[in-house]
Design a protein that fits this description.
By secondary structure, this protein is an alpha+beta fold. It contains five helices and nine strands, in the order E-H-H-E-E-E-E-H-E-H-E-E-E-H. The longest helix has 15 residues.
């Protein structure tokens, strides 16, 4: 039975191993990493899925803002599910839980870079994203937003930049 819960400090090794397995070393070259590097995920928005003692899924959300307008947003990613457990709904459950928690915590919008056909079912669209950009190269058609509060992205302009709390040195070393 899969249990969904907040990530714990002891999950770092298993989370990183899962991300390496799913995405490989190229994950560190993505523009999203410029938002995540050296930062802690948003409080209450680092989630994992466990089956018995095995970590089988992970998702994190990160504080950011639109560089010109200063509009606060969350950046979602990465979302990963163990290859032998994909297709069971674990990723969808993590997404729904993350979005629900983000809304309950008062956040206005969640952005991500991903496959629009997959994320559309969770409310992510390209509409309203034309004046926003990721730092570094990104595929415009894969830059998606989901407003948790209607109109939150109206007037949002600029390149995303990180605003979350800095990670402590031990967490940065554990993630490397």
């Amino acid at each position: 039975m899969v249990i969904y819960t907040l990530e714990q400090p002891g999950d770092a090794f298993a989370r990183e191993a899962l991300l390496d397995q799913v995405f490989g070393p190229a994950r560190f070259r993505k523009s999203s990493e410029r938002i995540r590097a050296g930062r802690r995920p948003a409080d209450g928005l680092a989630l994992v899925a466990r089956d018995d003692d095995r970590l089988v899924g992970t998702v994190r959300l990160w504080h950011a803002e639109a560089g010109v307008s200063g509009t606060p947003v969350l950046l979602l990613g990465p979302l990963a599910v163990a290859p032998d457990r994909q297709g069971e709904g674990i990723g969808a459950a993590l997404m729904r839980l993350a979005l629900h928690r983000a809304g309950a915590l008062g956040h206005g919008a969640v952005l991500l870079v991903g496959d629009e056909p997959y994320y559309r079912r969770f409310g992510f669209v390209t509409a309203g994203m034309a004046d926003l950009a990721m730092p570094g190269p990104f595929e415009r058609a894969r830059f998606l937003g989901h407003e948790l509060v209607a109109g939150h992205l109206a007037g949002a302009v600029g390149v995303l930049r990180p605003t979350g709390a800095a990670a402590d040195a031990a967490a940065v070393v554990a993630a490397a």
